[in-house]
Specification:
With 245 residues, the protein is an all-alpha fold. The chain has twelve helices and no strands.
């Protein structure tokens, strides 16, 4: 790992924090959305297999991490040394199969130890502030490690159908909202069982919708029309052509 390069970047972050008006004004709280945005931009570059952009986004994440480290010092949360040392100690503690006397451990033992070193309770370490579909996936993973899981994807599909029926037959909107949550949770578990994240599937669907709507706007413009002046039927006809193309 290029420690010299990281040190150089850290020095630049120090200068920016000291001399750039925008960076001087930032707090840990104000940086929360920028940190989140950089992670999502990294995910997008990864999914598009855009190697050039991946390099850029990884660099942006590293820059934000170093800025957070500096701001934490400035706000009196902890020194950079304390934060780094605590992180080092945690990693060593959680990896006895690398740094301790558990050299023969396999993946099963490693995962069990990882959970045992966290707070008490199988789901106590799940951060419910992350995207809800990812949270559902992670909770499913965790409880599956103690055997609380469906045996096969087909079993989950039956649960999905059951939840869908309950959603459709809900007597009022409050109950329908609850059943919608149950349905989404079941769908997230199906995705987990077959090997992907429901969050990824939804993000891809969002991207597909965005691209198709862009083409719809272009087609309307080519026809000399405004979407606001077109009927839903006219837009649907164009939309279906776009889907088939």
């Amino acid at each position: 790992m290029g420690l010299k390069a990281i040190t150089k970047l850290a020095d630049i972050v120090e200068i920016l924090r000291r001399e750039c008006p925008w960076d001087r004004e930032q707090t840990l709280f104000s940086m929360r959305y920028q940190a989140l945005e950089e992670v999502y931009e990294f995910i997008e570059a990864l999914e598009r297999n855009d190697r050039e952009r991946l390099v850029e986004e990884i660099g942006d994440i590293l820059t934000v991490a170093l800025m957070l480290l500096k701001i934490a010092e400035d706000e009196g949360v902890a020194s950079a040394d304390e934060i780094i040392e605590r992180t080092v100690s945690k990693l060593i503690y959680k990896h006895p199969h690398i740094f301790g006397d558990k050299k023969g451990w396999g993946m099963k033992e490693v995962l069990e130890n990882w959970e045992n070193t966290k707070r008490e309770g199988i789901l106590s370490g799940v951060d419910t502030r992350r995207p809800a579909l990812i949270t559902a996936h992670r909770m499913g993973e965790k409880v599956a490690r103690v055997g609380f899981d469906w045996e096969s994807p087909d079993d989950v599909l039956r649960k999905v159908k059951e939840e869908c029926e309950e959603f459709l037959n809900a007597p009022d909107e409050e109950r329908r909202k609850e059943e919608l949550g149950d349905l989404l949770f079941a769908l997230a578990q199906y995705a987990r069982k077959v090997g992907y994240y429901a969050e990824d599937a939804l993000r891809q669907a969002n991207s597909k919708f965005k691209e198709r709507f862009r083409r719809l706007e272009e087609e309307a413009k080519r026809l000399g029309r405004s979407l606001k002046d077109m009927s839903l039927k006219e837009m649907d006809e164009i939309w279906e052509r776009i889907k088939r193309s």
